[in-house]
Each structure stands twice: as structure tokens, then as C-alpha cells.
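Problem: given the chain below (307 residues), write out its structure.
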Amino acid sequence: MSTPSVYCCGEAVLDMVPAALAGGGPGYRAVPGGAALNTARALARQGIAAGFIGALSTDPGGTGLARALTEAGVDLSLAQRSDRPCPLALAHPVDGGTRFDLYDLGTAGALYAPADLPDRLPDTARALVFGGISLIAPPAAEAFEALARREAGRRLIWLDLNIRPGLIRDAAAYRARLTRLVALADVVKVSDEDLDWLGGGALDRLRAEVPMLLHTRGAAGAVCWRGPDVFVLPAPRAEVVDTVGAGDIFAAGTLAYLARQGYLCKPLAPPEVALRHAIGHGLRAASLSVARPGADAPTWKETECAH
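Solution.
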């Protein structure tokens, strides 16, 4: 692939998901996870040159994550390799989805710091994607906020709030950080769960603050606000097997369509028909992913054929 046009900034996590042991009984299977990793791999599967900015451990878990990214075609030239442990997340099925218990203290991802950021990005970089657990606590959260602030004048900033309430220890500091990042963003994506945590009036505040707001609503599809314009797109019907990574894959599908059509630039100003097609493509990608286990993103061809 060519030099990346989209960099996914944040965490790479080894997800431990329930699986039957060879001898019988319950156990766990290790799979690649984390918002930035999922989005980068999904973009690459959509045929978009993608890169990862963040930390990858040199231990067996981190080496596996690096291999998964490389095999997908994701560029790791701006990733930091660290001898600190790989972050782990233990998955538990719950009503309506999956709960993850994160084991992150002292890990490569948690201790990624502003000094670890790349000095500069290639001129080909058109967009940066932020979101997920990497924005919760310093020093990693400070690093990614600093990167967004540094690049916001030159690159498209896509912010997927992807809030994980169970992992937040300092809610006031986290809210303040999200507020600052929202002010830098060209596109903000929120889910129903994000809005619940943000509290009453959050949707109206975000609509007034960002150039483009995407509200994903699971099986109900997505709503897009751009200035005074608003439209709703339905989600394709899907037999849901696993919702893990669906929001990341939606983001990747939408970005991939915009990139292929030449609209991935700042300011983001595609005509409405192109924007509708982009979001529809993202919804189809997400619907295909939830029909199979894990954050298994479809290819561009699979997504287009799902019309």
C-alpha cells in the first residue's frame, strides 16, 4: 500500500473472548482489539492506506497485535514499540452486548506519552481518527489530545467518543478533555450509550458545536447533522452474532467511501448525495461485521455487493 492517508490514533489491546477449551469447559481466546487497531485494520480491508499511531508492546501479545496490523496492510512506521506489557481486556457477554474488563496498569498503551508522538506526519496524511479508551487517562490521553491539537489545522479530525463508563476514574477531567477534543473535531460520532453518559442536552450541544455529527443507533441506523441539514439512514437488517467493533468498522467504511471519492480533506464538504452514500457504505460494513464473530471487517467489494 502507499503512504497512509488515514492514521488511527490510540489503543491496541489483546481481547480475551470466551471460547471453549479443547478438552471441554469454558476458556478464552486471544483476538486483536482496541478502537484504533480495529479501525486501521478495517480501513485496510476497505482498500485504504492506513497507519497506526500508538504503542505496541514487544511481548508476545503485542507482537501478535503488530503482526495482525501488518498482515492487514496497516503501516506501523509511526508506531512506538515498547518493552512494557501489552494491554489485556477480558470480555464478558451481557444483555445487549459485551462488557470488557481492562487490565492496563503500567502497559505500553497506558504509558504512551506526548514525548512518544511522531515529530511529523507525511504530507499524504489526510485524516486522523481518535477515540476509545486511549482518551480516558494520562499520559496517553494527553498525548493524543496534543496530536489532535497539533494537526487540527491541517488534517481532518474524526472523533469517535466510544465512551467506556466502567473504565473512567476521573469523570471531570475526562469530560473536560472530550470538550476540548470536540472543539478540534471536524466529525464527531456518538452512540446512544455515549449520549446516556454525557447526560441531558448532550445531543443538542454537540449539534451546535461540530461541523458534522453522526449519531449511530445500532439497528435503527444513523442520523447525520451538518449545519442546518439533517438526514436519517436506516441500517441493513442483520442477524447479530457479535457487536464488538461495529462502531469502528462503521467509521472505517464511511471514511473509506469519502477517501475513494476524493472528499477526505479539510474542510470536509462532500455534496449530500455523496455523504449519504458514504454513511450508507459505513452502515453496510458494520452490518456485515456484526453477522460474524469478532471485529471482522468486510472488504470494499463485500460491502458494495451488500446493496
